[in-house]
Amino acid sequence: MEGVPMANTSLGSGSAPQPVAPTGKSSAMAPGLGLPLQVFFSLVMATILLVALAGNVVVCLMVYQRSAMRSAINILLANLAFADMMLAILNMPFALVTVMTTTWIFGNTFCRVSAMLFWLFVIEGGAILLIISIDRFLIIVQKQDKLSPQRAKLLIVITWVLSSVFSSPLAVGSPRLQIPPRAPQCVFGYSADPGYHAYVLILMLVFFFIPFLVMLFTFMGILNTIRHNAIRIHSHPDSMCLSQASKLGLLSLQKPFQMNIDMSFKTRAFTTILILFSVFTVCWAPFTAYSLVTTFSFGFYHKDSFFQISTWLLWLCYLKSALNPLIYYWRIKKFRDACLDLMPKYFKFLPQLPGNTKRRIQPSAVYICGEHRSVV
């Protein structure tokens, strides 16, 4: 039965799947990949797996081991890294093997469990980005900083519960999924059942469309606030003080009287979150469209190139999990410094890097509102 594709049944239906007997035509409809593409995808996915695993493990260790790193936003970023890490451990290896063999060799039961885990981690990642973007909106636009580490942990528990609720039906076979060789992992297949369509639409709304629209709204509001604040500061340069400018969400200002303002970490993190949102959109929008078209279009699902299309889009999805820790390292100095300290400790073969030595940061002199101040 491993190579026998199953016809989809309705959402929540207890009826058994109807096997479709394999024919020469059905075999031709799932040609898999040519050898060059097979090698290319295998190498790329193996690289993504290693980077995603190592990078996200380091992020989780940094927040777990360093009490100074356990701010609300860092706890949320660590949970996002944990979801990406689990995706790398529990999904990527099996997709990699299937790309290399063009055959799902892990059984029908694990196919359903694998699909459930895939959507569990994906929904959780989207939910965490949504929470962070709303937090930035409240801080910069509403001037409300209500997200404490305790509340962040409570929100994490809530998002995991909700993600499990939406993804768990897949593990019990309702709705039914198409097993490979149609795709490198268990995916939604074409179905004419309205219940099947409803589940896929709900999943895509919860995972992508609702978070995307809310995040887009919050970022537009933040950018609009920053633009108005910049106009306000330039219109009244002599009356702008450090405490006021920090609340307005500006990175720095250079004025004729040598005013140099460094805003708080919370506001600086907005640019990082915007980059994470952009990566999320670029990596997951094509897969979302692909899942919807596959469910509703018989012709698209039975294209000869379906396996190849699925592999390209799956590679793009997994790329996000590898890029996130690289973005943290690039954009957040605390993560970068902690990473340089941790790497030689856990990876003994790495030399001690010059950046690992702890240095006392010398205060720098700035002029704020016409008076000289020393800040760290």
Automatic annotation (TrEMBL):
Residues 7-16 have a biased composition (Polar residues). GO terms for molecular function: G protein-coupled receptor activity. The keyword Oxidoreductase does not apply. It is a multi-pass membrane protein. Keywords: Cell membrane, G-protein coupled receptor, Glycoprotein, Membrane, Receptor, Transducer, Transmembrane, Transmembrane helix. Residues 55-328 form the G-protein coupled receptors family 1 profile domain. GO terms for cellular component: plasma membrane. PANTHER family: G-PROTEIN COUPLED RECEPTOR, G-PROTEIN COUPLED RECEPTOR 63-RELATED. This is G protein-coupled receptor 63.
